């Protein structure tokens, strides 16, 4: 009789991949489906998960507490496991969804950077790399198939199935890391400080603004939207002044910081604006099939195929491949008839760029060792949050320009109207969003080619 232990060891490498690449948006979709009205009970789980997921990385940067990254990884797995358990209980007692949303939000914020950092630490310690092999790959396909099937199909107990899958994955991941080594190193001087007021204030500002704007969208209240836009505009002015005064002290080149920032903006463009666009052009029932399935498939394809893209275009530096790939994908997004393919392509290069940026940050000795990947994810989150507020501000101004009420903006974000006026607003913001992202990518391309030398590192 074959022992089950070797089989589970072969399957384990697929588990962290599935968790880190789905935990940021599948619970988001689950809590979104619960948002069926404007009462707080149905609104709060979604609002809490999204806000904690987006701002949790800044909370992690604020309180370092001398923890090794492995401890942060363990905390994120425990948080996610308990959150999944409360999600299951929520099927019978709905207040459990509130605690589930907060805990899963923390896990979604902390798990990807912690898991990536531990991966690089294991490489430094020359720990044998775990490979998926045939069993792991087959297991990966089955897991992703279950998640995608649960997203596309509508059946009783849908949330129970998804939270149950996540609980099993978190338990498996927790069991798999018990033998992970902790790097034996002296605490970096930059790591000795345990509380960072600037990062904590950033967490508070983002948290409050996101809560307000999400409540505005969830409760259909235009006053909340106006308050959030005014607050963000004031914050943007202060942030622009601060960046102008301090960017010369940055330890990383401008193109690298900005590419991480744009990567976050592109993610938000696909997952947030993509839902509006898909709903109005193809219908609400097509969002999962035309948007989320291509997005997930793009991530998987990138992990499997990006190395072959590098081999084909050996004459180009890798960051140039990703920049050009994102530019081409954004241009494809202008063509509605191939929208799902464009989403797949943009997701492919976003995921590839994220992995490559992880490598660049992990190899940079100017940054504190335990904070390198966290800094990258924080920069990426800043881009995602900034794009969201720019998008909502753009919708707000366009509604006024076209003589529409502010509730029109909320109708767009809730996919509740298909009037010709709203279609004009969506098309205009679509072109403006792509134009802004293209402008920033061309700026990075210029800065990378003509101003800054390439960062080199050993494979």
From TrEMBL:
The keyword Transmembrane helix applies. This is MFS transporter. The chain crosses the membrane at residues 12-31, 43-60, 67-86, 92-112, 133-153, 159-178, 199-218, 224-243, 255-277, 289-310, 322-350, 428-446. It comes from the Bacteria. Keywords: Membrane, Transmembrane, Transmembrane helix.
């Amino acid at each position: 009789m074959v022992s089950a232990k070797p089989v589970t060891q072969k399957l384990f490498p697929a588990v962290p991949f599935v968790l880190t690449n789905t935990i940021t948006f599948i619970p988001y979709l689950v809590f979104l489906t619960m948002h069926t009205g404007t009462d707080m009970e149905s609104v709060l789980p979604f609002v809490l998960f999204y806000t904690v997921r987006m701002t949790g990385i800044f909370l992690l940067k604020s309180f370092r507490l001398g923890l090794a990254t492995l401890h942060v990884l363990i905390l994120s797995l425990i948080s996610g496991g308990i959150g999944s358990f409360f999600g299951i209980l929520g099927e019978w007692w709905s207040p459990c969804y509130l605690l589930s949303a907060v805990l899963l939000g923390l896990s979604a914020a902390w798990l990807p950077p912690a898991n990536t950092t531990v991966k690089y630490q294991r490489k430094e310690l020359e720990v044998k790399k775990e490979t998926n092999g045939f069993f792991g790959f087959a297991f990966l396909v089955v897991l992703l198939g279950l998640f995608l099937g649960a997203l596309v199909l509508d059946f009783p107990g849908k949330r129970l199935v998804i939270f149950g899958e996540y609980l099993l994955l978190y338990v498996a991941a927790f069991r798999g890391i018990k033998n992970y080594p902790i790097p034996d190193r002296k605490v970096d001087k930059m790591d000795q400080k345990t509380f960072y007021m600037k990062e904590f204030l950033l967490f508070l500002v983002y948290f409050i603004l996101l809560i307000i704007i999400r409540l505005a969208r969830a409760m259909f209240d235009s006053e909340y939207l106006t308050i959030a836009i005014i607050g963000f505009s004031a914050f943007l002015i202060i942030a622009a002044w601060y960046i102008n005064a301090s960017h010369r002290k940055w330890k990383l080149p401008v193109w690298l910081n900005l590419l991480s920032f744009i990567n976050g903006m592109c993610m938000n463009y696909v997952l947030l604006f993509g839902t509006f666009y898909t709903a109005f052009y193809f219908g609400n029932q097509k969002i999962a099939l035309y948007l989320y399935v291509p997005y997930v498939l793009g991530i998987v394809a990138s992990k499997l195929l990006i190395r072959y893209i590098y081999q084909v275009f050996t004459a180009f530096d890798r960051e140039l491949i990703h920049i050009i790939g994102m530019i081409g994908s954004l241009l494809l997004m202008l063509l509605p008839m191939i929208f799902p393919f464009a989403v797949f392509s943009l997701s492919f290069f976003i995921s590839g760029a994220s992995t490559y940026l992880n490598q660049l940050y992990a190899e940079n000795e100017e940054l504190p060792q335990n904070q390198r990947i966290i800094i990258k994810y924080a920069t990426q989150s800043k881009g995602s949050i900034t794009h969201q507020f720019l998008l909502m501000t753009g919708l707000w101004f366009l509604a006024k320009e076209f003589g529409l009420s502010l509730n029109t903006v909320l109708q767009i974000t809730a996919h509740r109207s298909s009037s010709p006026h709203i279609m004009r607003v969506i098309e205009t913001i679509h072109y403006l969003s792509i134009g802004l992202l293209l402008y920033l990518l061309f700026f990075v391309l210029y800065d990378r080619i003509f101003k800054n030398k390439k960062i080199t590192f050993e494979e």
